[in-house]
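hey
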């Protein structure tokens, strides 16, 4: 298997995309993501205190903890979304790149944040769980995970979507601007 062989996957890769081109896209996206990800994660985390302030609620240690969960979720989900967007949007029109980036970020960032929320929830409840990898432990993990997902949907999604759409639209527009320069380098004259 050589790097110059075309990838024969039906899942959105551009026709004729080679493994070397795929790897180049991933590495270039990861390098560009290193510049954008901390700012995106910070903006994503700032949704929590802004929403809390607008509801005229107390900003305390719980707000800081929620901000940390949202920051880590924004960092993890944003990096995966940025790289997947770069792979699937390579060489496409502006509107397609924008849509791909918006959908990827709107799905993957909340999923990563929910996973970080689950890990924090699991850390808290682990003191009452059975021995690791026992039958009861798997049941407890399943129910703890289901409770964490329910609690995240009920309590944390409200922080993301009223104000988070502006952040998602902004990051999608930034992705389109960056990917246009990438497409111009990879597909000159197109």
């Amino acid at each position: 298997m050589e790097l110059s062989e075309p990838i024969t996957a039906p899942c959105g890769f551009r026709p004729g995309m080679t493994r070397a081109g795929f790897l180049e896209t991933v590495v270039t996206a990861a390098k560009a993501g290193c510049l954008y990800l901390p700012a995106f994660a910070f903006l994503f985390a700032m949704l929590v205190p802004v929403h809390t302030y607008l509801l005229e609620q107390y900003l305390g240690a719980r707000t800081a903890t929620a901000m940390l969960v949202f920051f880590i979720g924004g960092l993890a989900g944003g990096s995966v979304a940025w790289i997947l967007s770069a792979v699937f949007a390579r060489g496409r029109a502006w509107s397609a790149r924008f849509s791909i980036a918006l959908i990827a970020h709107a799905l993957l960032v909340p999923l990563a944040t929910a996973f970080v929320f689950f890990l924090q929830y699991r850390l808290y409840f682990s003191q009452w769980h059975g021995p690791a990898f026992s039958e009861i432990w798997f049941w407890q993990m399943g129910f703890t995970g289901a409770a964490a997902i329910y609690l995240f949907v009920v309590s944390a999604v409200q922080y993301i979507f009223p104000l988070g759409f502006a952040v998602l639209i902004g990051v999608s527009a930034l992705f389109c601007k960056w990917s246009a320069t990438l497409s111009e380098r990879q597909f000159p004259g197109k």
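Residues 31 and 83 are 10 Å apart (CA to CA). Residues 135-186 form the longest helix (52 residues).
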